[in-house]
Prior knowledge:
Order of helices and strands: HHHEEHEEHHEEHEEHHHEEHHHHHHH
Structural class: alpha+beta
Catalytic activity: (R)-mevalonate + 2 NAD(+) + CoA = (3S)-3-hydroxy-3-methylglutaryl-CoA + 2 NADH + 2 H(+)
Number of domains: 4
Keywords: NAD, Oxidoreductase
Protein name: 3-hydroxy-3-methylglutaryl coenzyme A reductase
Family: Belongs to the HMG-CoA reductase family.
Shape: globular
Number of helices: 17
EC number: 1.1.1.88
Amino acid sequence: MTEHKIINGFSKFDRTQKIQWLIEQFHLDAETQAFLDSFQLTNQQWQAVIADLSENQLSNFHLPFTVAPNFIVDGQTQVFPLVTEESSVVAALAKAAGFWAKRGGFKSEIIGTQKKGQLHFSWNGQPQKLRKAFPEIKQKLLKEAEPLTQNMEKRGGGIRAIELKELPEILPNYYQLDVAFETCDAMGANFINSCLEQFGRSMKDWASTAPELLPEEQGLEVIMAILSNYVPDSRVRVWVECPVEELADEREEAYAFAEKFVRAVRIAREDVSRAVTHNKGIFNGIDALSMATGNDFRAIEAGAHAYAAQQGQYRGLTEAWIDQGKFWFQMEIPLAVGVVGGVTSLHPLAKLAMQILGNPSAKELMAYLAVAGLASNWSAVRALVTTGIQQGHMKMHLSNILNSFQVSDEQKESARLYFQDREVSFAEVKKFLEKHV
């Protein structure tokens, strides 16, 4: 392993200096600067926006910006913008959209939109004194946070609840303020964190000035103040339904498929090894749409994975059943998203993605994200219980395999024709090219 010198002040270098340092340290090709420059935007205004999104920016890492048309959500036709490097994800979404568009489309229900944050603190005092004073403390917290909350309240949001939790089983003298927030169309991270940090200052002020406290009780230590990405009260349910007979051309085939599909989803509910991969398929769709709209797919995934394990066992997030001749497929998932501020308002392609979606509200975007997840899962499970996942998956990856061999357009077309009705694998493509190139 090659050792490299520790460097101080790297962030203060300009972009060219950073690149030159990397070239020297890693003995990179002299053309590295030009290579990185080639991925920069020619529009200097937009490039400046992209560069400022992160620290130590050297270039732009491109992923395909694509669309999947024909989604019907609550009776409205939508085109979903997507950012993903996996072609089969886009194909799966488009195929699911077209299939369910002929059967009434996707439906959604917003169950809640409250997000949460926590103030974690340590206080070496008599718990009953804190409990008794808490109604008065709560008013102090709300009053002193008013400069932060008044604008959000004008938009219909704000602080919805503050709960005091005593948790000595975690740490001695450990407490939490568990706070519910409504942030309307904003994701609200900065708003929530600012409120919580103000709560910390207010709690310390209470402890140092409350006349009922003894001198040894006047030291309150704030451990941390931070939002939580676990948002079970910001939740959406999405589903599709149709008569079982509409799932295939023949009645017997339709029922056989529906029953097999239901069994596959049930396995994902009960078996953790299957559940993890099942849910990954859901996030193929959710992540692609969240990236396109500038939302934080990492936060979404973290919260939803925790929700999948809320009963003590990690489970698949979707459910399927047959009831009185009807097939149902649904998902209930927590989602915290924003449609104003942040990357959504800054990134030029995120702005375009929002325009393609009709500039939705946060509630509407919650529904679209969940629909993308359900659609992706529908296509994946459908493939698993019919043709198998590899047939369609590898067909979609044929272009990537061919590009790895750097063949001509004519050779690519010959390969596509050859593999139209054959199984695709890296080894088989290599064998074909060796024989025909």
